[in-house]
């Protein structure tokens, strides 16, 4: 019989510890006497649990009938023995398993993005018909944030890119008395590649990260769950205005970036080379046909759609903590920049195939 009496408060400390050798050669049934038990807490439960486990290992029959009901209920929640933690498995490098997992993850994301694209297409059609849950004020706010608010950084970056191209071209072409061809270099490079790519990278870093962090914050605040409860589709209410804003503003920013890039090259060329302003203007018009603008226009539409969808998708996959918001923003920026460069490479191959 294990006699327990007095006060057993673990929070005050000083409780005894039951050891396996305390049973000695005891061979009869193992019971408890708690008639003189005073105040107690989980410290007593831990002591009795140690005693019961020691008796179980010794093969003794345990009688818990004399214990108070509250203690019996707490002891019933505890296992008879503590399970040993599993031994850590040795990590074996299996490249095919790793590669297969990466391929499956990539295909899953491609499928999710495809499904999101279909939802956005359907939402766009419903918006035209006036049936989508799209508030005009949200579309206007996203368009203003993605367009006019980004003019300053788009202007600075594209102007400097055009100026750098003109400076590098002037240093080399001046050796061959081909100063006038600086206009061809700047015009084609800016209109065909640099304005579209630089504008896409700017929007991926500026707007794509903002979309991902905004949606991730709403997930952490359970606002997305609230929208689902009241029956408002997130795709129409949040994602559609964000994607439409980028699709609308990206081509306009591209044309604006072309103008600023050519202007930067123009200022550098007329200051360094023996070129007149009128000659530079006419050479640029002859070097850059209209189909180059159309090609860049289509590219920026694809860039805007990709940045919007990828950023919103990453925001939807974010966790609910504050740290996950920063992680989602970082992932959206990286994915957007890499996606812009990868899509530009694909468009370059397609342009060579179709002869643009």
Question: What's the short story on this structure?
Answer:
The chain is mainly alpha-helical and 356 residues long.
Low-confidence stretches: none
Q: Give the helix/strand class.
A: mainly alpha
Largest sheet: 2 strands, parallel
Mean pLDDT: 85
What does this structure look like?
By secondary structure, the protein is mostly helical. The strands form two sheets. A two-stranded parallel sheet has the order 1-3. Strands 2-4 form a two-stranded parallel ribbon. Helix 3 packs across helix 8 (234-272), helix 5 runs antiparallel to helix 6 and helix 6 packs parallel to helix 10 (290-316). The protein has two domains: 2-76, no CATH class; 130-354, no CATH class. Helices cover 70% and strands 3% of the residues. The model has no long low-confidence stretch (mean pLDDT 85).
Search tags:
single chain, about 350 residues, mainly alpha, two-stranded parallel sheet, elongated
Please describe the topology of this protein.
Layout: E1 2-3, E2 6-8, E3 32-33, E4 37-40, H1 42-57, H2 69-76, H3 95-128, H4 136-146, H5 151-173, H6 182-220, H7 223-229, H8 234-272, H9 277-287, H10 290-316, H11 322-354
Parallel strand pairs: 1-3, 2-4
Helix pairs in contact: 3-8, 4-8, 5-6, 5-8, 6-8, 6-9, 6-10, 6-11, 8-10, 10-11
